[in-house]
Amino acid sequence: MLDRTIQWALTNRLVTLACATLLLAAGGYAAFTMPVDVFPDLTAPRVTVITESHGMAPEEVEKLVTYPIETAVNGAASVRRVRSSSAQGYSIVWVEFEWGTDIYQARQIVSEKLQLVGGGLPEGVDAPVMAPITSIMGEILLVGLTSEDHSMREVRTAADRVVRRRLLAVDGVAQVIPHGGEVKTYQVIVDQERTRALGISLSQVMEAAEGSNENAAGGVYQQDGREVLIRGVGRTNEIEEIGATGIFV
User: Fold this and answer.
1) Are residues 179 and 163 in contact, defined by beta-carbon separation less than 8 angstroms?
2) Would you write out the chain's pLDDT as a tens digit for each of its 249 residues?
3) d(CA 64, CA 37)
4) How far apart are CA 115 and CA 72, in angstroms?
5) Residue 54 needs a FRET pair 20 to 30 A away by CA distance; which of 21, 33, 37, 165 works?
6) 3-class SS of residue 160
7) CA 246 to chain centre
């Protein structure tokens, strides 16, 4: 076969030279227009699914949360590999697709599968969510906030409400995760002896605390061609108002 090819090339020299010239031109064009990257992204299209399960041990997370999600996404179209990691209170599932799969199409496929498995998860487990589109070649920047005039809680509040939102607005930033400091929270400490004496259960206290911090819509009042929005403002940030919440038995 090789001898015949050489003999044909020697017999048809003009055709051979023309083909060689075309190949040389195509190779030169490809070499000059080929994108060059110092750190090329060699990761296949991947979707990360994160599920938070409060208070569950790693064995329970693996059996009751991670396994159903893996089973649901395993049979999806163009899926080449599924990996997972289960820890205390967290489940992470990585779904890798075939090379060339559009990442947005891959996320749509995973989203449809998660809707099927969401109703079968145990009570108290948050709905599975997909992490932002990232790559293992992505860069991580650590930003530290310090202050001599503000408390750790005030610094953490500024990081959550100001710095994080502005960083997410920067083009190319996929995710911002604050760490450290003191997160501002309101805790309701129940006196068990008094609640037992009054015949009040813990669930009633929780319902009263949740209901005391909600706004209610009252519709629209119309008069003389004008509309006035009626609403009940129940949200509060004052500890005294939260403590004065009534419980109806």
Assistant:
1) no
2) 788 888 888 888 888 899 999 999 999 998 888 877 666 667 788 899 989 887 788 888 899 999 999 998 988 888 999 999 998 888 999 999 998 889 999 999 999 888 888 778 888 788 898 888 876 666 678 888 888 888 888 998 899 889 999 998 888 887 788 887 887 777 888 888 888 888 888 888 888 877 777 777 778 888 888 888 887 777 777 777 777 777 776
3) 43
4) 10
5) 165
6) helix
7) 38
For residue 142, list its beta bridge partners: none
Say if strands 90-97 and 129-130 run parallel, antiparallel, or are unpaired. Answer: unpaired
- Rounded to whole angstroms, what are the CA distances from 75 to 69, 80, 106, 137, 245? 11, 10, 13, 28, 51
Report how far Cα 52 is from the mean position of its chain's Cα atoms. 11
Q: Helix (H, G, I), strand (E, B), or coil: what is residue 94? A: strand
Residue with tokens 């929005």: 229
Residue type at 103 in one-letter notation: I
Q: Which amino acid is at 146?
A: T
> In this structure, what is the dihedral angle of CA atoms 24, 30, 32, 38, given to the nearest 10 degrees?
-140
CB atoms within 10 A of CB 145: 15
- Residue 87 identity (one-letter amino acid): A
Radius of gyration of the chain (CA): 31
Largest separation between any pair of C-alpha atoms in the chain: 109
Using CB atoms within 10 Å of the CB of residue 65, give its burial: 0 to 12 exposed, 13 to 18 middle, 19+ buried: buried
Rounded to whole angstroms, the Cα distance separating 164 from 173 reads 11
Spatial contact of 178 and 156, defined as CB atoms under 8 Å apart: yes
